[in-house]
Design a protein that fits this description.
Blueprint (H helix, E strand, L loop, with lengths): L15 E5 L6 H13 L8 H4 L6 E9 L5 E9 L5 E6 L2 E3 L1 H4 L5 E4 L11 H15 L3 H23 L8 H35 L8 E6 L7 H14 L1 H7 L10 E6 L2 E2 H4 L2 H23 L4 E5 L7 H10 L5 E5 L9 E7 L2 E6 L1
Parallel strand pairs: 1-11, 1-12, 6-10, 10-11
Antiparallel strand pairs: 2-3, 3-4, 4-5, 7-8, 8-9, 12-13
Length: about 350
């Protein structure tokens, strides 16, 4: 894939791995490869065809390791462009549908663009939650796929109604199905936000000398927290928004319009916090994400930090790595970083990865 014609790495027993090399040398491709094994897609939002090495018709990513109970496990993702596009995913050499594959490898990934999470588009904040939920709830990915399918169908019907090709009352059937699925999606987001708030202050205290109150606030139009009541709320909102939906030919109510923000010391983070405070809070979310995955699944996730340490001073670097001491951590950097105990260093350049020091 991309920078690598063929690459095999044995990480050994080290808990931390630092991959050092120039930009464009292939470091981020290593992070991206693991995201395929975890999310079933690129963490860089690249289409599989765009991940292919020039002139190649397929790529294959495989990882072998041990679970927390010391049982052996292998994961494999294969993408083929020719003779026809298809994806194949395997756990322990048994082929499984992609929806059953997602979340088998628990990861928390931090990319440079994540620094804009609090000030960027709402879709990125929704995606942040959805990636974590998909690794804690075996049904969530298929639930989101179903929600997106129903949403497309309803939007297509709205367009046909506005063009006089369908009757307005036909939307009722889609509203019932969409309301049910929307309620299930939103309930899972409510739950994960609750889990964040249980330990977010503690995670922040590991990185900051000050003990700040931090709270994740879910922005949604509904109020209920029980499935049947939430479904009725969605049905009411969908029927009440039909005129504006027909005018815009799109559904204006639902989890696809939700958002969240952080409140720090009682104030919205994105409006009042400095860039440094935002970065510290983002790292606290990373730490809390790793803890949530461990609490729910019983497996400590692998943490992938793409060129993140360069943004931190020595104190914050040490605090972050100390907080992640129980996790396997893979770090990429364009320059040498402080080397701590139990760390392996790798040099990466032009698609070649060489072990430097263990």
């Amino acid at each position: 894939m991309r920078s690598y014609d063929r690459l095999a790495l044995s990480l050994g027993n080290a808990r931390r791995h630092v991959f050092v090399g120039p930009n464009g040398g292939g470091k981020t491709n290593l992070i991206e490869a693991l995201s395929f094994l975890s999310y079933g897609r690129s963490c860089l939002k690249a289409a599989p065809d765009d991940v292919l090495r020039w002139g190649a018709d397929f790529f294959r990513i495989r990882a072998e390791g041990e679970m927390a109970d010391s049982s052996a496990c292998s994961l494999e993702y294969v993408w083929q462009r020719a003779p026809r596009r298809k994806c194949a995913t395997f756990i322990n050499d048994v082929r499984l549908p992609l929806l059953k594959f997602v979340g088998a490898l628990k990861t928390v990934i931090f990319l440079p663009e994540d620094l804009d999470l609090f000030t960027g588009a709402p879709q990125h904040r929704r995606g942040f939650l959805d990636i974590l939920i998909s690794q804690t709830d075996d049904n969530y990915t298929s639930l989101r796929v179903e929600y997106d399918r129903l949403l497309r169908q309803r939007n297509a019907l709205l367009k046909r109604i506005s063009e006089g090709q369908a009757e307005k009352n036909e939307v009722t059937l889609w509203d019932d199905q969409l309301a049910h699925t929307a309620a299930e999606v939103q309930l899972r987001r409510i739950k994960i936000i609750g889990l964040f708030n249980v330990g977010l202050k503690t995670s922040l205290a590991l990185l900051s000398e000050e003990s700040d109150d931090a709270l994740m606030v879910y922005e949604r139009k509904t109020q209920a927290t029980e499935a049947s009541v939430l479904k009725k709320e969605f049905q009411t909102f969908l029927s009440g928004s039909i005129d504006i939906d027909l005018m815009l030919c799109t559904t204006t109510v639902g989890p696809h319009r939700d958002d969240w923000h952080l409140v720090l010391r009682g104030h919205p983070l994105e409006k009042f916090a400095s860039r440094g405070q935002q970065r510290t809070c983002l790292l606290a979310l990373l730490l809390r994400s790793a803890d949530i995955l461990a609490e729910v699944s019983g497996e400590r996730p692998t943490v992938l930090l793409d060129d993140v340490l360069s943004e931190l001073d020595d104190r914050h670097q040490e605090a972050l790595l100390k907080a992640l001491s129980g996790n396997q951590v893979l770090i990429t950097s364009t320059h040498q970083v402080p080397i701590y105990r139990d760390t392996a260093v790798w040099e990466v350049n032009k698609g070649v990865v060489i072990s430097n020091r263990q």
